[in-house]
Structure formats: structure tokens, C-alpha cells
């Protein structure tokens, strides 16, 4: 993700306009628009101000890594919530919608990320709009609920079941057909991105 895209994503996560952010940082009204469209490059001082305001690293502002933020007041970690996932590896071009707090106990299980559920395929267990907290992995055990990427589509959430012919990716909503994958073409048919360990509902 380029700097301009990262800045835009962070700004939107706080529901700020370009003018709002410029005012907060005491910058010219048009500066944020120029940064987001890469018509201007911020100085190191401004880059550090942006990173401090959004509570992320300068490296993250430059688009080089997914940011995990330590909350000093609560001792928890904040992980990015991705609106859509359309490519691999994790973080390459994913739009961050916000952040979710996780405990150190959860983070100790592995590198975590979160994804907003965009369909009703896993209802009534996981509802559209819920946030799935997942641990990055590329393999699943029988019965795991996983986030997976299918070529040509955004990532989806399904229950993984091992079958004699390969695997079945099951929806809990009967309106959605299972996705059947043979063992010989499983690598081309889908890629597991993470195992869901927690689901958070919108109240």
C-alpha cells in the first residue's frame, strides 16, 4: 500500500475529512489532499506528526507493514480490521476500516488480524457486519472456521471440513452452497489466510 492510500485509510478510520485532519495538525487546508494523491511529499517532521496522531509507526505510514498498536493505558494490543481482503500476502493491499483490541494472551497464539464479515453465509453463528478475529495460518484442522482467499474474489469466511476427495468449505447458512475442492487442485482453488478464534458482534 502506498503512503497516500495508507494516509487516506487512517483518516477515514477516524471519520475525518481532509480539512479536519489538516486543521488538527495545523497544516494548510489542501496539504492532506496533496499527500493522499501523491502530489506532494510530507517532510519528516510532518510524517512523524501523522504517525503520532494515528498512533502508528512511521514505517507503517509509509505503507511498509501492518500496524499492531500497544495501548499503554489498558495493556492490550490493537490490530487492524480489514474491510476487504483481495490479495495475498496479508497486508499487501488491504483497506483498514478500524482497529480491535486483543489481549496479550490472544496475541501470544500467533500473529493476528481482523476482518469485517461482508455476507450472510455464516449466519446464524456469524452475522454480516460482525468482526472475525483470526490468527494467521495457511493450514486448517477439520472443523476450523477460517478466512480464505479464492482467486478472483475477496476473502470469505467458511467452515473447513476434510473430505476423502479433498476439502469442503461449508457455509452455515443453507442458502449458500458448499465449495468442494479436490486434493489435486486445492492450492489453486483457495488459500487459507487465518483461523478464526473470536467473533465480535455489532451491538
Describe it.
The protein folds into two domains: about 60 residues, 434 Repressor (Amino-terminal Domain); about 90 residues, Umud Fragment, subunit A, CATH 2.10.109.10. The protein is about 25% helix and about 30% strand. It has seven helices and ten strands. Strands 1, 2, 3, 4, 5, 6, 7, 8, 9 and 10 form a ten-stranded mixed sheet that branches. The chain has about 200 residues and is of the alpha+beta class. The model has no long low-confidence stretch (mean pLDDT about 85). It is an enzyme of class 3 (hydrolase). It holds the Pfam family Peptidase_S24. InterPro entries: Cro/C1-type_HTH, Lambda_DNA-bd_dom_sf, LexA-like, LexA/Signal_pep-like_sf, Peptidase_S24_S26A/B/C.
Helicity, in percent?
A: 10-25%
Radius of gyration: 19 Å
Oligomeric form: single chain
What is the top-level CATH class of the largest domain? Mainly Beta
CATH topology category name of the largest domain: Umud Fragment, subunit A
Our measurement of the CA-to-CA distance between the termini, rounded to an integer number of angstroms, reads 31 Å
Instruction: Supply the number of structural domains.
Output: 2
List low-pLDDT spans: none
Mean pLDDT: 83
Proportion of beta-strand residues: 25-35%
Please give the number of β-strands.
10
